[in-house]
Design a protein that fits this description.
Strand content: 5-15%
Number of helices: 11
Pfam families: PH_16
Keywords: Coiled coil, Guanine-nucleotide releasing factor
GO biological process, one term: regulation of Rho protein signal transduction
Largest sheet: 8 strands, antiparallel
Number of domains: 4
Number of strands: 12
GO molecular function, one term: guanyl-nucleotide exchange factor activity
Protein name: PH domain-containing protein
Distance between the termini: 99 Å
Length: about 500
């Protein structure tokens, strides 16, 4: 910066220094951002390490949010802090808020472990799409979080320690809402992750099946080799005629050996076995050659003796000649037996090789069948998914039809109630007819008749009115709970001129 002040403005050096200064600032800001991201990722990892594996949260759309969803690569921690979630009863519950790329998560601590917060049966995970942040009136440390999602709106009241921290939270949440991806992108990303997960599971299952098949084949080969080894050991004991048993009658490598031997030990044992086999072979050849040479020498000696001793020599050499023939016969029998054993072993080896080739062909056929079956299952799964989607769409249309039917039913019920109230008001306002002959009572009173007589007339009028269908309870109260006038009061409703008219007076209740 100081170099720019002492450099001539507009020169090439000034431009180079300005460009270098801009690049240095960009590098510093990039380093700061990288360090900040690393610190945020470490903080999120610490929280995830303390989060219970079995803890889940159910969202409004019916999906389940778990610990694995927080570990997603596209979710980065933006802000973290302790806030207070206000319940319906007015209590403030301590929660740890995590502001991620597309969601806001509330966690609660219990026994040094974190779980998803459960307050008033509201989901502790709030999508940032269509999230509105408002201040609480007359409350410096409170704010409202209003989720205007299409699945179902929800409102949360959250408090902080101070007003500055509340403003910082509101600023961070608004910035995260502005930079949050759309719902369609989020759904595509979740679908891609689910498809990748299903493909990985299918691949792991297929590899496991192949491993089990190979393990079974290895076990069969191992058993065959062990039987072959036993036969070779018995053959060696018969050939050598030693009373000591063969020390190694088992395979050097087992199928399910947890701790295999070292390579040097295996190679040393294999070399020893090879040397021993070679020595046995050389011993057989040497014995056969020795027997042949001794037989030839014996024949030559016999011929010499016969020539020298004449006729008496064959008689003395007869026992030795018979012994020599017996030895030759035994050697010949042993050679034939060895040849037969070798032929039998060759036949068994050919049979084993043929069986192994058949098993390999069968394994290839099974592998092709498995591939065809997997393709068929994939096609069926796609068809089932299409049917499930159509079923869900039909269910949505059915629910919409049910809601419209319920709205029509509510309208009809409201109209019925309105009609009943109208009928009730109409019945309560029906007129009452008073015959004109009953006005004689008023005329008797005006003419100065006896009061007792007038009272008797009034009582007779009341009885007549009662006989017409009007009861005393009808005068006490009306259907609209308005007190009615007694029959004496209706008599004064006539005109003051005292004329007896021929028409009826109508009084409305």
């Amino acid at each position: 910066m100081c170099l720019c002040f002492i450099t001539i403005e507009g020169s090439q050096e000034y431009q180079d220094l300005s460009s270098a200064l801009v690049h240095i600032r960009d590098i510093i800001s990039a380093v700061d951002m990288t360090v900040n991201k690393y610190e945020k990722s470490q903080e999120l990892q610490e929280v995830l390490n303390r989060l219970e594996n079995k803890s889940i949260a159910k969202l409004k759309n019916g999906k389940v949010f778990s610990k694995q969803d927080l570990c997603s690569k596209h979710r980065v921690l933006q802000h973290k802090g302790l806030v207070y979630w206000k319940t319906a009863t007015g209590r403030l519950k301590d929660t740890l808020a995590l502001l991620l790329t597309d969601v806001l998560v509330f966690l609660q601590e219990k026994d040094q472990r974190f779980t998803f917060a459960a307050v008033d049966q509201k989901p502790p995970v709030i999508p940032l799409q269509k999230l509105i942040v408002r201040e609480v009136a007359n409350e410096e440390r409170g704010m409202f979080l209003i989720s205007a999602s299409s699945v179902g709106p929800e409102m949360y009241e959250v408090h902080t320690i101070s007003r500055e921290e509340r403003n910082a939270w509101m600023r961070q949440i608004r910035q995260a809402v502005e930079s949050c991806p759309e719902e369609e992108e989020e759904e595509e990303r979740s679908n891609e992750s689910e498809e990748t997960k299903r493909a990985t599971e299918a691949r792991i299952q297929k590899i496991t099946q192949f491993q089990e098949t190979l393990l079974a084949q290895d076990q069969m080969i191992c058993n065959t080799l062990e039987e072959k080894l036993e036969l070779y050991a018995e053959l060696t004991e018969l050939s050598l005629g030693s009373p000591e048993p063969i020390p190694h009658r088992h395979l050097l490598v087992q199928v399910d050996s947890d701790a295999p031997r070292l390579a040097s030990t295996l190679l040393t044992a294999a070399l020893k076995e090879g040397k021993k086999t070679h020595w046995i072979k050389k011993t057989f050849i040497h014995i056969f050659k020795s027997a042949t040479v001794s037989l030839q020498d014996s024949s030559c000696e016999i011929q010499k003796l016969l020539l020298q001793e004449g006729e008496l020599a064959p008689l003395r050499a007869l026992p030795s000649l018979q012994n020599t023939k017996k030895e030759a016969d035994e050697v010949q029998k042993l050679h034939l037996k060895l040849k037969q054993e070798q032929q039998r072993w060759d036949k068994e080896c050919l049979a084993r090789e043929k069986q192994q080739s058949d098993q390999e062909n069968e394994l290839r056929q099974r592998e092709q069948q498995c591939l065809l079956e997997a393709e068929r299952l994939r096609c069926e799964r796609e068809e089932f998914e299409i049917q499930l989607l159509e079923y869900q769409q039909n269910m949505d249309r059915l629910k919409e039809g049910q809601r419209s039917v319920e709205r029509e039913k509510e309208k009809i019920e409201a109209q019925q109630r309105l009609l009943q109230s109208w009928r009730h008001n109409r019945q309560s306002s029906l007129p009452i007819t008073i015959p004109p002959q009953h006005y004689q009572v008023r005329q008797l009173v005006r003419r100065g008749c006896n009061p007792s007589r007038g009272r008797q007339s009034l009582e007779s009028w009341g009885s007549e009115v009662t006989s017409d269908g009007l009861f005393e309870e009808d005068y006490s109260s009306s259907p609209s709970l308005t007190p009615l006038l007694p029959p004496q009061a209706y008599l004064s409703l006539d005109g003051t001129n005292g004329d007896e008219g021929g028409e009826e007076n109508i009084v409305y209740l």
